[in-house]
Amino acid sequence: MKKKVAKIIRVASTAPIVALVFVSTLYLLVPGSFADIWEYLFSVLVLSLLPLLAYPVQWIFKIDKEDTRAGERKTAIVFSVIGYVAGTIVAFIFGFSDIQKIFYLTYLLSGATIAFSSFVLKIKASGHMCGVAGPIAAMVYFGGPGYLGLTIFLGFVIWSSLYLGRHSPKELIYGTLIPVGALVLALMIVL
């Protein structure tokens, strides 16, 4: 039973799924986040749908035939960064709200850091923690301290990752710190 719950948490805490919840919450609860539904739908496309395409692409094309999980991770990072680059470029070119510029830039900086640490430095940081910690930090910043209760979800992701043996405590810490640092940098750039 515990293993099943841990796996459900792992699936629910993938960055594209959390991004969908994050942008939907902003759209519904934080005034001024999006000018219209089209900006919201664009964010769903580049932050959720495009990154989710990585999984069927990996299954179909077997990016890493010897290690399916490693192939999924590589493909997910690449597809996510492509979406984050597209979102950031469009947000800045078309003058989206500062909130959108900040969250797209935060996703881009986080994704680029995960990619660099994974592919160049060979240091694995938890993408799940990154994908959960970043939106929680952003919700607290944009929505106020009432969203601090969301930090409980970090505990679920930590438990799931450790229980299933997917990450070490150090990798979970890296995954938590990367988006918080990216958010601070994005705020300094945009504001």
What does this structure look like?
The longest helix has 26 residues, at 68-93. The protein has 9 helices and no strands. α2 packs parallel to α7 (127-143) and α7 (127-143) packs antiparallel against α8. It has 191 residues and is mainly α. The mean pLDDT is 94.
> What is the mean predicted local confidence, pLDDT?
94
Strand content: under 5%
What is the overall shape?
A: globular
Radius of gyration (CA) equals: 16 Å
Indicate the low-confidence ranges by residue numbers. none
Q: Could you state the order of secondary-structure elements as H and E?
A: HHHHHHHHH
Distance between the termini: 47 Å
In DSSP terms (H or I, runs of 4 or more residues), the helix count works out at 9
SS-based class: mainly alpha
Number of strands: 0
Main beta-sheet strand count, sense and barrel state: none
- Proportion in helices: over 70%
